[in-house]
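User: Second chain of the day. Same drill as before.
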Amino acid sequence: MSSEKSAIYDDDAFFNNYINLRNAESNYNDLIEQPIVFELIGNVKDKAVMDIGCGYGAMTIKIANSGAKYVLGIDSSKKMIQKGMLENSHENITYKVLPAEQIASSIHEKFDLIVSCLAIHYVEDFQKLFSDIYNLLEQNGNFIFSMEHPMYTASKFPQQWVTEPSDNTVTGFVTDHYGDEGLRNISWLGKQVKKYHHKIDTIFNALIEAGFILEKVIEPSPSADLMKKVPKTIHELHRPAYLIVKSRKG
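Assistant: Same format as last time:
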């Protein structure tokens, strides 16, 4: 996404740690977030699609394999794009190293669908981003995105669960500095990662002001089956890790 994201994801150690995390069977991307986004995407046959912050193309290849006529996957990380071209190539996919902040000046085509998975929390200016995305969509085109939930991004301190002293059972999650929007320096995978915290009203008002019509908002909770399969996911009942939105160009 941003140059800050590029710098961290192009760091060899961080990149390898991230790939190992995504390859783990219990990763929340595949267990919770990706299935919901893919269901919201729906029928893409013969559509032109852009995947913003595509990473190594995990969603990009799913969209192409589902019949999209053209998919442009963009990401600011060279290492991510290289991995995508190597492992998730398709005749209808074009991968490009490009930060989300530069789409207005660098892309001169229209799309039926623009999707972004867990990437826009690296972007500071949502008003500009959503306006740029709006202008790149065909009329009635959809913008579907997932991001880290504002309850998750709010804290200026390391993630902290509230536990029962007697048996260490998780009973809650600490959310602080919610109303103080802006930069967060997060310790993750052995590095300091720069992300941006936006309140719920900031996110939705920026969408509305850009001209989007909201169609679906999801704050995922783990299913009973998932909590049985992966017991630690029961913690997600105390706060959603993700915010997932489907909107349409009005």
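The domain at 3-149+197-249 is CATH 3.40.50.150 (Rossmann fold).

User: Great, on to the next one.
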